[in-house]
Amino acid sequence: MGDADNYLIAGDILLVRGKEMHRKRREWLRWLISAAISSLTGSEYTHAAMYVGNGAIIDVDVGRRVAMRPISELDCFDAFRVVGATNADRLGAVSFCWRQIDKRYDYLAVAAIAYERLTGRVWPLAREDPHRWFCSEMDDSAWKLSSEPGRVTPGDLATNPKVQRVHQSTDELVALF
What we know:
Layout: E1 13-16, H1 18-25, H2 28-41, E2 47-53, E3 56-59, E4 67-70, E5 77-82, H3 87-99, E6 104-105, H4 107-119, E7 132-133, H5 135-143, H6 154-159, E8 163-168
Parallel strand pairs: 6-7
Antiparallel strand pairs: 1-2, 1-5, 2-3, 3-4, 5-8
InterPro entries: Papain-like_cys_pep_sf (IPR038765)
């Protein structure tokens, strides 16, 4: 991926093309999960992470808790930046993510999004849980980007008018299956 600090700023949102990444790594179960997310959302982006500086990200993924890890664990991502954000805004978003470390993955919220996308109806069991997150929900909440927190997919973040893509991965873009 190269030296991320050359083109990323703490607070940048990294949106991952998971089908591509997991295919390259031959992680077939994760590829299937990414394929399902992509199909439900109509987006190539299936995961989101927050760049926190010094080559590190904070994210949460299926089967994992919110954690900091090296950006080198990601590839096939594009970087998005909140338009007009100040250094204080970026610090606030990063600090928000730091405070979420070790919280659990929010399976119920993901199931609610799937239900709503498939049926067009709101799932009555859906609720916001401040002790659980899924990837794009946490980044959206850190930046307060949407009016409907808890219902934001990585693809929604990519099309939000408050963000702009600032770096596109140079990883090979491949049509899958």
